[in-house]
Amino acid sequence: MRRLNRIxxxxxxxxxxxxxxxxxxxxxxxxxxxxxxxVPVSPGTGFxxxxxxxxxxxxxxxxxxxxxxxxxVVWIDLLLPTGEQRRISRQRYADLFRATIGGAGLxxxxxxxxxxxxxxxxxxxxxxxxxxxxLEDFFTAFEQARADGVGxxxxxxxxxxxxxxxxxxxxxxxxxxxxxLDEPAPRRLRVPVDMPDFVLNPVSxxxxxxxxxxxxxxxxxxxxxLLERFLYPLDTLLEWNRIYGRRGFYQFQCVLPNxxxxxxxxxLLERIVRSRAASFLAVLKTLGGExxxxxxxxxRGYTLALDFPCKAGTGELLGSLxxxxxDHGGRVYLAKDACLSPEGFAAMxxxxxxxxxxxxxxxxxxxxxxxLARRLRxx
Length: 379
Ligand SMILES: Cc1cc2nc3c(=O)[nH]c(=O)nc-3n(C[C@H](O)[C@H](O)[C@H](O)COP(=O)(O)OP(=O)(O)OC[C@H]3O[C@@H](n4cnc5c(N)ncnc54)[C@H](O)[C@@H]3O)c2cc1C
Prior knowledge:
Elements: E1 7-11, E2 16-19, H1 25-32, E3 37-38, H2 50-55, H3 63-66, E4 73-79, E5 85-89, H4 94-100, E6 109-116, E7 118-119, E8 124-132, H5 135-148, E9 152-157, E10 169-176, E11 189-190, H6 202-214, E12 221-226, H7 227-231, E13 237-238, E14 249-257, H8 261-275, E15 282-287, E16 301-309, H9 314-327, E17 331-332, H10 342-348, H11 352-362, H12 371-375
Parallel strand pairs: 11-13
Antiparallel strand pairs: 1-2, 2-6, 3-7, 4-5, 4-6, 8-10, 8-12, 9-10, 9-15, 14-16, 14-17, 15-16
């Protein structure tokens, strides 16, 4: 859908932007930030498109204050599997609207969408970074950030640290900066080759994580960076996936409700640390509440995302993480999933029947399909 990439209109009074689904977050940021507007919710890569953001009801580092992407969608022009075209919204075809937000593309093709942008006077954020010594300290710091209404918060976790250091990492809190930065957009480098498999091993990842953790001085530090750099740190390294070699990697992301809190995340981390399989990319964030979509991922709680290089035992590890997530009333994020079981999926997404009822109405011949839908037996 990337070739449907035109911005159709923008009304500064209502802040309503109408665009085709292939428009990327990079394009929206570069076009509208200089005019004082911004997409209110953005995932961790600017290469994602508006269509993809709706279909996974994506969340950003500001979920506690802004919710997920679907909250800011005013209407969607949808091409149904029958060929009929409908404009759907909270007022018209509300069920279909809620099935399309986070609906993994299964309700039809999004042809255009109207999104309400937010005001943003400056192009930069003031970031406070500090070391966090343990999982308990992370939870205390995140809850404090929530109570203070901090705009953006995200934690990097050293998923190799064990014992008293389990869950140690770096917390980043950010707010809009006082002034814009006069700086060009970040430069991009490219990983030129697939790395040999032996490069990423528990020792090399452990060394990397230790150095990365200590890069922040004990007393913490503050810096002002371009919003683009803060939102999309990985986008400056093109084809970063090649670091995992030819066999690639799996990503796992789950959310656990606040009540499951620290004990649930601790169990996940203990299992991951025991496997010694994790990479250097492990992220902990807070989510503020449920999304509007029947299959929206967020719930109020903590979300943990990690990459695991593909190797023997990774499938088994992912199975254990699914069980722990399920036991704690959490759910796995479909956008990042390749291994979830159909039983686990049905238990984690309680509005699945409502979603299925909509598909039953609009797609009687079961035309819309995907590998994900088949594996999870969504239909
Ligand atoms: C580095 C990185 C960081 C990420 N960080 C986050 C994050 O912080 N938060 C988060 O929530 N997600 C995150 N993601 C996941 C990403 O935001 C989602 O997977 C998103 O849906 C990708 O959008 P895409 O445009 O690349 O779509 P694709 O990956 O091509 O498709 C994703 C889904 O959207 C559907 N779709 C796409 N276009 C249309 C259309 N026109 N009509 C109907 N359905 C359509 C597809 O069928 C598919 O189900 C991250 C991904 C990466 C690679």
